[in-house]
Design goal:
Helix content is about 30%, strand content about 30%. With about 300 residues, the protein is of the alpha+beta class. The chain folds into 2 domains: about 110 residues, Aminopeptidase (3-Layer(aba) Sandwich); about 160 residues, Gcn5-related N-acetyltransferase (GNAT) (Aminopeptidase, 3-Layer(aba) Sandwich). The protein has an 8-stranded mixed sheet, sandwiched between helices. α3 links the parallel β4 and β5. The chain is elongated, with a radius of gyration of 22 Å. The two termini are about 30 Å apart.
């Protein structure tokens, strides 16, 4: 059996963690969590002075009712043995349950390990990237019926309509995150989330009713770290009858992305959101890897 030493994570491990993140196809934001005051604890797994795994847990102000957890294991080593040692060390800590983590669907070894240790899948997330120039010639004419198309920029100065939008965004987000509830926050806090620094106000589209006093559906658009790409944000509708309006908004956003010289539009589509799934069923995104979110209560 391989000799594995489990130690508390130290900042000197950072360079090796960077390499581990890369080989595990994880995001670099995980490094910032290891330096965050929200970090609860982190452990490193070593074999002959080489870092072969890391596990850490942290809290989120936005979703405060669970503990976030991430476990990375060098895929060229025994996943079950390393992950087992790290998980045992983590579970000796006292933290709030449920515990939640995410993995790529292609990490079948770690997925099997989690399932054997009491974790269950609560959500799957598709993360496709669409080349917009390939789409505009094929899109049908958009028929919005009696509804009027507005941008977020159009309604920002209409306090009543803006408040209705924020209330709807809050309602939809809460409905689609029941397994991991969001924090209780003021409308001003939700307003700040809607009007995030990277939101594109003239590319975030909203359908309103004929009297221009009710929100029917919305789809937000954001800047990306990639200068060739824009990102779809939150979407939703006032009820199921109007859910078919959301793909129409996204088609408008495909045209916006193309007309403004961007090459790609990408998004994250959770299976727990009927609104996101409506977009995925109606817009021909290319095949993509799946991110699986698991919880243990």
């Amino acid at each position: 059996m391989m000799q594995i030493a489990i130690k508390e994570y130290e900042s000197k491990d950072e360079d090796q963690v960077k390499k581990l993140i890369k080989i595990c196809f994880e995001e670099n934001y995980l490094l910032s969590i290891l330096k965050s005051p929200k970090l609860i604890k982190a452990f490193s797994a070593y074999h002959k002075n080489k870092l072969i795994g890391v596990a850490f847990a942290w809290k989120s102000d936005f979703h405060p009712y669970c503990t976030y957890f991430r476990l990375l294991v060098n895929p060229f080593y025994n996943t079950k043995e390393i992950a087992g040692n790290l998980l045992l060390k983590m579970e000796q800590l006292e933290f709030d349950y449920p515990v939640q983590t995410s993995i790529w669907e292609t990490n079948v070894g770690l997925k099997y390990f989690y399932e054997q240790n009491g974790f269950r899948t609560i959500r799957k997330t598709y993360m496709p990237k669409l080349e917009v120039s390939n789409m505009t010639d094929f899109m049908p004419e958009i028929y919005s019926g009696s509804y009027s198309l507005k941008t977020l920029a159009d309604i920002m100065s209409d306090h009543q309509l803006m408040e209705k939008l924020i209330l709807l965004v809050k309602k939809v987000y809460e409905q689609t995150h029941l397994a991991n509830p969001v924090a209780e926050m003021s409308l001003d806090s939700w307003r700040s989330l809607v009007l995030a620094d990277d939101v594109i106000t003239d590319g975030s589209y909203i359908y309103v009713n004929a009297d221009h006093n009710e929100i029917m559906a919305y789809s937000f658009l954001h800047e990306s770290e990639d200068t060739e790409t824009l990102e779809l944000g939150w979407c939703g509708s006032v009820d199921n009858k109007r859910i078919s309006l959301i793909p129409q908004l996204v088609m408008q956003q495909i045209a916006y992305t193309n007309n403004h010289g961007y090459k790609y539009m990408e998004g994250e589509f959770d299976t727990t959101s009927e609104y996101a799934m409506k977009v995925l069923r109606n817009i021909p995104f290319p095949p993509t890897a799946l991110l699986i979110t698991l919880q243990k209560s």
